Amino acid sequence: MYDSVAVLKAQADATYDEYGNEVLSYKDTTVYVMPRGVYSAEFYSAAHAGLHPSITFEIANQADYDGQKLIEWNGKLYDVIRADWSAQKDKIFLICEERVHNG
User: Fold this and answer.
1) What b/e string do you get for 44-81 counting C-beta neighbours within 10 Å, with b at 16 or more?
2) Cα–Cα distance between 77 and 42 in angstroms, integer?
3) How far apart are the C-alpha atoms of 28 and 92, rounded to whole Å?
4) CB 84 within 8 A of CB 100
5) What are phi and psi of 101, to 5 degrees?
6) In CATH, what is the architecture of 4-98?
7) Which of 14-18, 22-26, 40-44, 75-79 has the lowest mean pLDDT?
8) Nearest-CA neighbor of 92 among 32, 46, 52?
9) What is the 8-class DSSP label of residue 66?
10) What's the whole-number average pLDDT of the chain?
């Protein structure tokens, strides 16, 4: 059941503050997700590439995903490692790695 809310974040154009520092901004898309674990084969395969998948998000409607590389859920940020398009035509699975810092 898709009863958990997450925010897909797409980086928008960079702006600069009064000191010339780049300020990142994002275009947010709120979606319903079903958080899942990471299959062991996926985990070990990613580990060989230096990645550490920690969660998979199942999204019911593929149209909600537009290549975003960042997702926020329960106050934490996750980088999208890979998107797995389901054979069921509507679902998509985002295999993600938790960010160590929120920058």
Assistant:
1) eebeeeebebebbbbbbeeeebeebebbbbeeebbebb
2) 20
3) 18
4) no
5) -125, 160
6) Beta Barrel (2.40)
7) 40-44
8) 32
9) S
10) 85
Residue pLDDT, tens place only, 34-56: 999 876 666 556 566 666 788 99
Q: Considering the entire predicted model, what is its pTM?
A: 0.81
pLDDT at position 40 is 63
User: How crowded is residue 31: how many other Cβ atoms within 10 Å of its Cβ?
Assistant: 22
Domain residue spans in the chain? Answer: 4-98
Q: Coil, strand, or helix at residue 27? A: strand
- The answer to whether 30 and 5 have CB atoms below 8 angstroms apart is yes
